[in-house]
Design brief:
140 residues; alpha+beta; 5 helices
Length: 140
């Protein structure tokens, strides 16, 4: 067994803690400013230590986590979850956002299809051609 290091690269820790699927994705997110250490934007090579407070934004959700352990290897999910603890404020905010999404879903999410196909447009045009119009000049 290898001993746990005193500190390690941020991108490697995010990968080992299973926040991102690859280290390259972790590097991209860090460079975009979506990961902060102690509220400050950082670089991928920044060393993290046990006790550091990270702010990680994934999609619309921002999670505040405290580093509880370091690992050089990416292990199973239970082992990865032991590397961090989410703050109580972050949990409360995340649950409130989930409840808001449940009560008022995004209107765009109900759209099942995109633009009409050529066949749909022809049906619409055909329907429009045969519909009755109120402002016809010819009464009948």
């Amino acid at each position: 067994m290898s001993e746990t290091p005193a500190s390690m690269r941020l991108d490697k820790w995010l990968w080992a803690a299973r926040f991102y699927k690859t280290r390259a994705l972790a590097v991209d997110e860090i460079n975009l400013g979506r990961v902060r250490v102690g509220g400050q934007p950082v670089k991928p090579a920044r060393d993290v230590k046990v006790g550091d407070l990270l702010s990680i934004r994934i999609g619309q959700m921002t999670r505040e986590v405290e580093v509880k352990g370091l690992s050089n290897q990416r292990g199973p999910a239970p082992q990865a979850q032991a590397l961090y603890a989410e703050t109580q404020a972050s949990i409360t905010t995340r649950e409130a956002a989930a409840e808001a999404r449940r009560l008022a879903p995004e209107p765009a999410a109900t759209i099942e299809q995109g633009r009409p196909t050529k066949q749909d447009r022809r049906r619409l045009a055909d329907w429009d051609r045969w519909s009755a119009s109120v402002d016809d000049d010819d009464p009948g």
